[in-house]
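Record Methionine ABC transporter ATP-binding protein, 193 aa.
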Amino acid sequence: MEISALDGKALRQARQRIGMIFQHFNLMHTRTVAQNVAFSLKAAGWERSKIAPRVAEILTLVGLADKANRFPVQLSGGQKQRVGIARAIANHPDVLLCDEPTSALDLETSATILALLRQINAQLGITIVLITHEMNVIKSICDRVAVMSGGKVVESGEVFDVFAHPQHAFTQQLVSHTLNLTLPERLREHLPG
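=>
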């Protein structure tokens, strides 16, 4: 589907099938965790009686069931990002668009968020499109990668192939800066011999 060609009702329907996670969380600070998640369901037109059970289910999935009545100011950065993830997946999207989801987090918290995204992909079958400049994030979670330079895709393919055999000069530069980093096991298993 070419989303840029859609208009009106078709575009609104397509947008409802895409969940978004932002770099800076974008939580409503005057609403509780549960209310932040419920907001997306109300906006999507969910029946009132189905909202609370869905919010509880999603907060359990992201590990925040015990934080449902807290406000964003009472949460850590990682917990805020989990609220953002819960809000993004509450409406059963087909695609989860993640804009730099770990760039505002420390390494340990980033690892837990990436593990949660892998779990969501595996359990719920949601396609995840991840926008990042962090090569470690790409290596740890992505199956495929598209490298952009100047607003255009200059190279794409399986992560291992692009990292092992970069074709474009920009990709070669990116990869050369990460050569000293260890490849995760899921990529090492593709190495010959």
